Amino acid sequence: MKLSGALVLALVAVQAAVLLSAVPSAQASELQVGYYSKKCKGLENVVKWHVVKALKAHRRTGAALVRLLFHDCFVRGCDGSVLLDKSYDNPHPEKDAPVNIGLAAFDLLEEIKADLEHRCPGVVSCSDILIYAARDAASFLSNGHVHFDVPAGRLDGFVSKAEEAQAELPDSTDDVEKLIKNFARKNFTVEELVILSGAHSIGQGHCSSFTGRLSEPADQITPAYRELLKYKCSSGSNPPVVNNVRDEDYNTVGRFMPGFVSRLRKVPDFLDNSYYHNNLAKIVTFHSDWTLLTQKEALGHVHEYADNGTLWDEDFSDSLVKLSKLPMPAGSKGEIRKKCSVINHRLY
């Protein structure tokens, strides 16, 4: 097909604009608390308003936001790469990786982005919006016990590959030594691995993520809980199951674990240290949770946070800040996307 001279010039202009808008990504030391105080006044209030409204309507959205923060930042740094949809140029983005099954809250982030584009066009990155939104979700779900100031100034990346996500994210079937090595590659300690695992006090996982748990022995999973999981997984094709048995429905727990009924929570998805109590009782969903009990240092920290919920609130907040500072690969460039699901030149 022969292109007209005008069309060729237009395409060249678009590509040139994209290249000019791409700038080197910020390093962790360059991120600043209050980065948008003059660039987009009221930004944090806008994000919080949308998040609180969404969580009041559907509380589990909060867990989805916290999970998105981890799944974005652990792959290529905090660059919003997990938010990108598939395209002709990139048919297999991060969100399509098996390890990313069940990721959600994308529509909420687009809603926030659209509002901010109206107020401050071309100023606030989607990667920063995700960190603010996840922070506000964690605060809401913990009644304010988990909270931190957000260092900002990130750019949105151009690269998003499912194979990278699959290779870099920890898997729910991993043993403790593999988890330790994986987190060490991102400069996280054994203690921080245990701290961040505490996020499994909220949210849900698909049965395909813990199939192996359904046949593990009694010294790894409480038999009554194993039977409960089998029952839940038999209800459909790879259904989601809550991560925290304290959020299960009354009738199911009454049938399989009647002695646990009094511990059920009236408000689900409460972000607290209950994960550690559950783990010590061997009533956690994922093998990667139980395996923390098999390594001396990790086990010590599981006991530490089971005994001190306030300490976990503080350390989890600090660990989320550290996670949010993971940089893009050296030499990467970024932009401020107009929509979180697509890089800018795809909009033309």
TrEMBL record:
InterPro entries registered for this protein in UniProt: Haem_peroxidase, Haem_peroxidase_sf, Peroxidase_pln, Peroxidases_AS, Peroxidases_heam-ligand_BS, Secretory_peroxidase
Disulfide-linked positions: 40-120, 73-78, 126-340, 207-233
The protein, known as: Peroxidase
Binding residues annotated for Ca(2+) 1, in chain numbering: 72, 75, 77, 79, 81, 94
Binding locations of Ca(2+) 2: 249, 252, 272
One Gene Ontology cellular component: extracellular region
SUPFAM superfamilies the record matches: Heme-dependent peroxidases
Enzyme Commission number(s): 1.11.1.7
A biological process term (GO) from this entry: hydrogen peroxide catabolic process
Annotated signal sequence range: 1-28
Keywords for the protein's UniProt record, in alphabetical order: Calcium, Disulfide bond, Glycoprotein, Heme, Hydrogen peroxide, Iron, Metal-binding, Oxidoreductase, Peroxidase, Secreted, Signal
Superkingdom, natural source: Eukaryota
Intracellular or extracellular location(s): Secreted
Entry's family note: Belongs to the peroxidase family. Ascorbate peroxidase subfamily. Belongs to the peroxidase family. Classical plant (class III) peroxidase subfamily.
Record carries keyword Cytoplasm: no
Database matches in CDD domains: secretory_peroxidase (cd00693)
Chemical reaction(s) catalysed: 2 a phenolic donor + H2O2 = 2 a phenolic radical donor + 2 H2O
Residues bound to heme b: 200
Cofactor note: Binds 2 calcium ions per subunit.
